[in-house]
Specification:
Layout (H helix, E strand, L loop, with lengths): L2 H9 L22 H15 L12 H4 L4 E3 L9 E4 L5 H5 L9 H17 L6 E5 L1 H8 L3 H11 L1 H24 L4 E6 L9 H18 L7 E4 L16 E4 L8 H8 L2 E6 L10 H15 L4 E5 L9 H13 L1
Parallel strand pairs: 3-4, 4-5, 5-6, 6-7, 7-8
Antiparallel strand pairs: 1-2
Helix pairs in contact: 2-5, 6-7, 6-8, 7-8, 8-9, 11-12
Length: about 325
């Protein structure tokens, strides 16, 4: 099979010659420009020959569109440093308006996507990272997640105004991503867990805005819903219109097989993420590959980490995952 044939067969639960595999990680020193992100993505593609690619856009790029400022890192494994948050209060959030998705940091991301697609050709599926509007809001606030949740409970209209502005911008952006060569979105949220959002808050602050963004990419065949963290409100997302679901195999979350049973869609995961992966051995990595395949019977499965991996993960671990997959 070609890479595209292999991935699309796995998404449809059909037999594959080998199970699709990919990892992703930040390189904090190279992700600060379109050229840097492109070069690092292509380096990883050449080194590991993964079946699909999730280029690791910098996490702050969405918030940059509304004024987040930061000092870039010059080291691969050291994150950026925020120098200015654009919002301090509910009133600041209520004043957010949609911005031009083709300019600034998002325009830069589109430039990288076009360059990566051109260099790779048509065969390698690419999924492009987009954060849920509810995930973007904490990046804007000095008080981060805690303040975002407090505003949602004390002044929900202010939070909803911000979510609407972000969703309008991202709806236009994801259409441009598909036009630029993305096969789908890696659509992520990290607040939809039992220790953060309540189920009814997911329905108010996640679902309406998530659906607007995902519906804008409905023509893409490889959209993924990623719910980050332990104790995820999995049931709140199980009916989302995506081809695959991604989540951590953490306490309170379903197994891969249970996730497929509950959604009827492909599952992406089974492999360790940060920080666990940094202390693993190649033998342990091989065991995780085998366990994921055994749990699913090798159908409806794309092997991937629970979330991004440690930037300085030894190459030997990533090669071990492929060797175990090929031997299965």
């Amino acid at each position: 099979m070609t890479k595209r044939e292999r991935v699309m067969a796995a998404l449809g639960g059909r037999e594959v010659d080998r199970i699709p595999l990919a990892f992703w990680m930040h390189n904090f020193a190279t992700e600060n420009s379109a050229g840097g992100l492109t070069a690092e993505t292509l380096r990883l593609a050449r080194t590991f020959d993964w079946d699909y690619l999730k280029p690791q856009s910098r996490a702050q790029c969405f918030a940059e569109m509304w004024g987040l400022a930061y000092r870039p890192s010059t080291e691969r494994a050291t994150p950026y440093t925020v120098t200015r948050h654009p919002a301090r209060s509910a009133a600041d959030l209520s004043r957010l308006t949609p911005v031009d998705h083709g300019a600034g940091a998002l325009g830069e991301q589109l430039e990288a996507l076009r360059a990566i697609r051109k260099a790779l050709g048509a065969d390698t599926p690419i999924v492009w990272t987009v954060f849920s509007p509810m995930m973007v809001v904490p990046f804007l606030l000095e008080g981060g997640r805690d303040q975002a949740l407090q505003i949602g409970r004390s002044d929900p209209a202010a939070l909803e105004a911000a979510l609407d502005a972000i969703a309008q911008t991202l709806t236009a952006y994801v259409k441009a991503c598909v036009d630029a060569g993305a096969d789908g979105l890696f659509y992520a949220t990290n607040l939809a867990t039992r220790d953060l959002l309540r189920p009814e808050e997911c329905r108010r602050f996640q679902r309406p805005y998530d659906r607007r963004v995902l519906d804008a990419a409905a023509s893409a065949p490889f959209n993924i819903m990623h719910v980050c963290g332990a104790g995820a409100h999995f049931a709140e997302f199980a009916d989302y219109p995506v081809a695959a679901f991604s989540w951590a195999l953490a306490p309170g979350n379903p197994s891969l097989a249970e996730g497929h049973r509950r959604t009827g869609r492909a599952v992406m995961g089974g492999l360790p993420a940060k920080p666990e992966i940094g202390s693993m051995s190649p033998v342990e990595m091989g065991g995780r590959v085998g366990a994921a395949i055994a749990d699913t019977g090798g159908r409806w499965l794309l092997l991937a980490p629970d979330c991004s991996i440690t930037p300085d993960t030894p190459d030997v671990l990533l090669h071990a995952a492929r060797q175990a997959r090929d031997a299965a």
